Amino acid sequence: MFDAFPYDEWGEDVADFWTFGGHNSTGTWILTVLGFTVMLVAFWGFFILENRKLAHQADRLKASGALDRPSTTTGPEA
Q: The whole model's pTM is what?
């Protein structure tokens, strides 16, 4: 069987290793900034999408007259 694990046991040397570099490496910071940027773009896109949907629904409610104020008379005319 092929064993690609380069160490005899799991230890501190292994815990600091990953594909893009070790702790506080340039690769770690690049991926952190990229992840944060993607998250902000996703939030921005979500808010834009929801704003469009809310504006469309408000236009439909205005057109149907659902947002008109009710009349101020509350009882029968005397």
A: 0.58
